[in-house]
Amino acid sequence: MESMTVSECPLHGVGVRPEYMVGRRLEQVVASWHVYGAEAPSGPLDVWLIDSEAVATHVTTGSDWCLIVEPSAPFAGYDMAESGRVEVAPISGGTPFADHLGETVLEVSEEVDKVGGRLALEITFDSGRVRCEAWFGDLRLSSK
């Protein structure tokens, strides 16, 4: 994936360049999940990557399907009445980032659309890469 200058998302602006994560160790991952009744949770809806400098990097999708990457602390979960609830908690499994806890970020690269902004972010660790992408409005995380 080629790193390019991020085009400005019409709704969310240009965002931050995630290169600041390079050289920092991934200490904790916090995620939000939509929970509805007895169904398995969907998501994650958001992830926060907390690094060795105690900076929380929030990765999520925007309402216009762009990928948002911003320094931001995790929010509290909330109840949506008959629509279920959103739970926010630290995780040790359940996302590809869990496999890289304690590892240092070696490289980050982005995929952008000239009109819609950031579409994907890849974060490289010693033991592999994690790709974060906006996929039809949903956050998708995968290991490489």
Give a written overview of the molecule.
The chain is built from no helices and ten strands. The protein is globular. It has 144 residues and is an all-beta fold. It has one domain (18-143). A six-stranded antiparallel sheet has the order 4-3-2-1-6-5, with no helix packed on it. A four-stranded antiparallel sheet has the order 7-8-9-10, with no helix packed on it. Residues 1-6 have low confidence and may be disordered.
Tell me the number of strands.
10
Stretches where pLDDT is under 50 for at least 5 consecutive residues are 1-6
User: What Rg is obtained from the alpha carbons, in whole angstroms?
Assistant: 15 Å
Largest sheet: 6 strands, antiparallel
Helix content: under 10%
Q: From the helix content, strand content and strand pairing, which structural class follows?
A: mainly beta
What are the key terms here?
single chain, 144 residues, mainly beta, six-stranded antiparallel sheet, four-stranded antiparallel sheet, 10 strands, globular, disordered N terminus
How would you concisely characterize the structure shown here?
The chain has 144 residues and is mainly β. The chain contains no helices and ten strands.
Topology record:
Layout: E1 26-35, E2 42-51, E3 56-61, E4 67-71, E5 78-79, E6 85-91, E7 107-113, E8 117-125, E9 128-135, E10 138-143
